[in-house]
Amino acid sequence: MNSTNPDGLGRRGFFKRAGLVGAVAAGAPVLASGRADAADLDLGLDLDWLFGRRYQWVVGDHHTHSQYSYDAMYTIDRIAAGAREHGAKWVVFTDHGHATHEKSSVEPTSRDVLAAQRRHPDLLLWQGMEWNVPGAEHATLFFQAGREQASVLREFERSFDWRLTGSESSSPEHETLALNGLRWLAEQERTRRIHAPVVLINHPLRNGRVSPHELRNYRDTAPGIVIGMEGAPGAQADGFPKPQGNGGARGGYANNPGANSWPGFPAEAYRTFGGWDWTTAKVGGLWDSLLAEGKPWWITRNSDSHYNRGDQLVRPAVPDGWYEQTGKYPDPVDSGVPQLSAPYADFYPGEFSRTVVGVRRPGFEGVLEGLRAGRIWLSHGDLVQQLEAGVHGDGDCATFGGRLRVRRGSTVTVVVSAVTAYRPNGSGSVPRLGRLDVIAGPVTGPAADRDTMTAPGTRVVESFTPSRGYAGRRVTFKHTFRNVREPFYVRVRGTDGNRQVAGGIEPAMDVIGQANPYEDLWLYGNPTFVDVY
């Protein structure tokens, strides 16, 4: 295994710039193969405990669409069956907010979700919605409300969706309406009308409509409800070169600033990087600026399934105005021909994009608790079969989304382990893990400027390149922070190494019309915070 310092910064230089004054980091990479390799590391630690193996790690998807969306076609049951076929264990149905949806679709969706749950008892299925956030763009919303599920969703949609309230444009008044919607959810939870509401901001910079201050306002208005954002959009198949020659962009990120876009975003923010949103892909960027405040802000992945690439199903032709009259499209029919052209830009849940959540106990409660805790790692194209991360110090440990509390001057050890792919993914080839990176940055507290979108102290502190030929084996390494003086966070990412910026290791901007998603694979883990006292 090779260890590199890609920034050209010494470890002492990183900590000096990051504000962790007096700390010295020492990376000690280790490669071990086979299932028994963890014991070979001889770290003096219980690695089952360190890696959080007390959790069950389950794949799921929080953003899918059905025939009850004005721009989709699948039955609820077909999406559920597709999720099962690709290893997903939980799915949220999030059809678009729309006047017709609120009027005609919510209750029928509830019936179909319950029927699909009976047919697929091994899955966990939620009915939610894709909320058109006033003054912004879209967000996943779901919760549990028992028999009131449909009525509460309709009430929220009628009161707080910009398609129904005329509040699409960016303005302070519309931003306030969005925050009122979050306060409403919090009140419904407080009074036990609903349980465990979750909001995740979808494709945050596809149109540049969600400013940094809005993200902070959402989070701070409803902590524990607004838990984060899509680190990468769905619609990843849109980047494939199309047979007719007019290829799209991964996630639909082929846009430019519009009238409602926040003016502070640079032009590159409207593109994906290795399929990931600029907010996530840029080290020291917007995501890191949120983490530097020391507050939870998690990233997720999803399919955004509307029309799935390679599927033979097609939507029957209907007269104009059909959806507006019925709130539902007819069931799709089998064409006998794999569909590769637009609008077939998506994948089934679990087929390409994976959100893997660590749960303490089975069932809906376990997934909700794991999501809210940020116990999540994410990957594209089955880059690895398994990812584990443990941060250890002062006799305690934490994994993704956790917090470790240590005394000033302590040593903190990060151990990362992955089981590499051993079977072909959807492209027909076995992906190869090219590199794993440890990224760390100081926790500096609340940002004075709510539109801050940089974290200058955040760096890649160590990169590790597994040896070739380790298909289906475990690779493990550790990185040590010594004499820690100030709070910080640490997170992990990985790549197949196929595409990155010239002369560096950062993801390269995707090329519109020429972005086969299987040729540029990345994974990300959510951060672990280290508090120092």
Automatic annotation (TrEMBL):
It comes from the Bacteria. It holds the Pfam family PHP. One of its GO terms (molecular function) is catalytic activity. Residues 60-135 form the Polymerase/histidinol phosphatase N-terminal domain. This is Polymerase/histidinol phosphatase N-terminal domain-containing protein. The lineage of its organism: Bacteria, Bacillati, Actinomycetota, Actinomycetes, Pseudonocardiales.
